[in-house]
Model the fold of this input.
Amino acid sequence: MYYDMLRLFASGFAEPQGGNMKRSPKLFTGSGRKTARPTPQKSRPRKHGWFRTLLGLLSFFLTWQASVSSAHGQTEQEPIGYHAAPGADQHKTLLLKDFQPKSMLHVPEHKPQRAKFYVLDVHNHTNDPAGIGDQLPPQDVIQIMDQTNLKLIVILTGMWGEKLQHTIDTMVKPYPGRFMVFTQIDWSKIDDPDFGQEMVRQLNDGVLRGARGLKILKDLGLGVRDKTGKLVAIDDARLDPVFDECGRLGIPVFIHSGDPEAFFLPIDAGNERYEELVEHPDWSFFAPEYPRLAELLEARNRVFARHPGTTFVSLHMGWPENLGWVAGMLDRYPNVMVEFGGREAELGRQPRQARELFIKYQDRVMFGSDNGMDAEMYRNHFRWLETADEAFDYWGSPSQGRWKIYGLDLPDAVLEKIYHSNAEKLFAQFRGAKVLKETR
Done:
């Protein structure tokens, strides 16, 4: 190696062929032999000698550098390419659950600590007897409410009878104006011959105890079965007397029908809620035994049409992935309102459509959380509703899907209606106690 280096170095100083020495004319020596004597010639400058010297030095340096790099285990740097590396897919081994990228966006952030206007959370399950929500000391719940400007929460799953009474005694009565509770239907009696009127009596008992609305879980249409094993339809006629009675008493029916659209699709690589459904396989309704989402929602719409004197609240917006459908529902049924509990993720990723709908139907949208009892959860919702922030995490991300949400930046007049005015007008329709006393 070093011999090659020296040869390269020397090549920069080598004489060009046919240099400055030339043979003299032939001469005779005393021995009679002809000899040639070099005749000094006048020195001439070598053409481009300096350039050849420079090249020699450069060759020597580059060869020396390569040998040093090789001795230290270094390799020549690859040029920047414009095509995927061969076999790149084989290196994509990071598990989806471990993929937690940090956004590199430099955008404004605004994080309200309290709602701009006081809030009525119409979709909550805290300390409910059904065991759906968080179980917390009431004082801790009140503390969170005070920290975030939350005036009242509605405990939807209050059940009936003594369980309902316990919630009223421990949450509603000790903290006037801070909690409201709804009653529910006892599906274990669905096969009773007088089921409809039996539930009317149960409803009236709940209202006299202090319930201010009726909650229908998604079990209706997806889980409740009669003795034959058949699913009870949302528009089953046996429920008509109950819905009519709610209208007579001036109490709303909060109804949850269906579920996210992805829950009715296969749990595979194309499902945007793949991770959520792997964690909760019982939330999947992709099976022949279940109605399709559109069928469930149309059955519910038939209930809206049959009971125009009753106010219904379509929980979770009804079909939040399809806001054009939601707008059509609101146009068709003036006795229907909506709330967005548990759907911040769905609505926040389509901010322009959601904002347009909230403004257009500003008298019929209410604030709901359906996300436990956490101050930061409420603050995340305030940020979504009040600010124009971009590309931030929804509450609980990425549990419902791997995307970001965007602030709606709603006008103050709209915010105030969504936060509390619409709910206050709804609950002001209550006339149950007076009606029931007059009929007894």
Observations:
- The first strand starts at residue 22 and ends at 23.
